[in-house]
Amino acid sequence: MKIWIAMQGQNQSIWLDWMDSIKRWARVTGVNGYTEDTFHLATLSYGYGAQASSTSADIRLDFPIILDGWASGELQAHADDFPSLSSDQQEQAYRLLQEKPEYQLCKSQGEFTLVYWDQKRSSLIVATDSYATRPVYYWISPRNEWFVANDLRVLLLLQDIPFEVDEDVCRMYPTSGFAVGENGLEERTFLKAFASFPQPPLLGGTITR
Prior knowledge:
- The protein is α+β, with helices and mostly antiparallel strands and 209 residues long.
- It has one domain (2-208): Glutamine Phosphoribosylpyrophosphate, subunit 1, domain 1 (4-Layer Sandwich).
- Helix content is 21%, strand content 33%.
- The protein is built from five helices and twelve strands.
- It has helices at 12-25, 87-99, 101-106, 152-155, 167-172, and strands at 2-8, 27-35, 39-47, 58-60, 65-73, 77-78, 108-118, 123-128, 137-140, 146-149, 195-196, 207-208.
- The chain has a seven-stranded mixed sheet with strand order 4-2-3-1-10-9-11. A five-stranded antiparallel sheet has the order 6-5-7-8-12.
- The radius of gyration is 17 Å and the shape is globular.
- The two termini are 28 Å apart.
């Protein structure tokens, strides 16, 4: 299995602590990451049971881009397995998104989540397919650091997370046909600090910080 995480902010110790917490929580078998002074991103492979090794080797991505799932159209990529993308796919997708990101996302179909560093905007960009088929969650810290992941559980491993339950969402859940994160019209989660990525009306649902 595979998860990806990303952070925009200059406090590298928080990023390292987060990675260590994930490695203690799961049996991480591989890490592909990209780290700079102002942003960090990584995809982690993990497993359960005695067959899964608890040791991993960290490998640097060639380009600051991670895609989970598959995309067709302008973006041609398939990354359901680990690591996220081959070196050639990283280079091609990253180059296209640096040139015309809105066009590339509008003209791409599939079932995917995507995070990459936009050089012109000096910002992490997160995008999904047009239906937000795969949920993405994020938290903005009081220091304006931005944390995002495609698995809500790993956000719970961050330090200083305010565990304030959203009782309205808890009451709504038993009366709906959706689990939290599956309803594209609902951005809230059980915890008030976290939000899920909205169903994008256009542009692949790009969020920047």
